[in-house]
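A further point concerns the way the authors explain their paired sequence and structure data. Showing the layout once, in full, would remove most of the difficulty. For illustration, here is how one protein appears when written out as sequence plus structure tokens:
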Amino acid sequence: MGYLSATAEAGAYDVGAAMQALAAKGGPGILRQSVKLIALALGSRRIRPEEYFTYALYRKDRGRDFVRDFLSNSRKRDFNASLEMPARGVETAVLDDKLQTEARFLAHGLPFARTNAVFAPDGASVPPMPHLAVLRSSAEITAYLSNPDHFPVFGKPRSDSFARGAAAIAGQTAAGTLQFLSGEVVPIQGLADEIARDWTTGYLFQPFYQTETSLRAHVGDAMASVRIVTLWTAAGIEPWYAVIRLPARSAMHDGDAIGERIWGLIDIASGEVIRLRSLRDPHSGDLIHGNNPDLPFLGFRMPHWQQAIEITRSGHECFPGHGVIGWDVFLTPEGAILDEANASPGHVYQVAAQRPLLNPDMRPAYARALAFARQHGGGENAF
């Protein structure tokens, strides 16, 4: 267990406990669940046990049509790759490297979450950016984190996902110690040693961006990113769907954490929150509030929404070989900025909407993207 391991630990799933909880709530019995879990895992959709519970696939209204149009995590990479266009240049390695993606944003004049310092062990390449400090050792990380001018700061791995290893650091509490946004106090030297040991592919230090004030009232102090997924079709770049992922109330970010996590479906045209769901508790039904029980979040309109859509369109133009990209966007007091780009996004729509990804409303845009990919050497598989 390390200082940066909480997210990975929270992401573990206890299938046995989930089975017991579902049976206790009046759901199918253990034997019936077991039979269904095996059938789904061995079927053509390769649905994992966790997805059975998260998407309430035990419900009677989620029959063959739902499963047919549902995109399981095990099929996600194949789905996204089917929209790649080799004739236009596939750049997955760039998109998987947060720092190289940032350099691309910089070159095209796009607003983005800026990395101020990177841990890059000796021999690791770093794209040239004038504002970037390069830290080559645990000692240099320690020196960087010992400077009070660098706080608050958000740290995250250069090439990982699901916010594993990420931490919001509020500042120093005493000589040689730091305080996370969660309240945990950690030693600077110990944290630096862990980063140098466990994140040899690189670790980034960025400003701790704040959510726009009206939105922060619903989500709390941790940043709630908005996932906007865009498709490239013959008509150009089309925004496909948008979801806001609220952090758990005690969390430092919107990734895996102990506590309730709420995801909201956003109307792509207006920026209005049109549905709210609990990620891990489909029994709770539709919600009205986010993290603030006194302030309804349903119907809230996202600030800087048109700017957010436009910067994802412009960002997608930087990667013409990719038919689908998932964008993490920060809505800050100063405007919308790009945080990360995902070449193979997990399709969070399915939780927020409680509908399969390729339902009749969503499928036409996918079909347009598939047809366009086929014009440029892609689209080999159809879903």
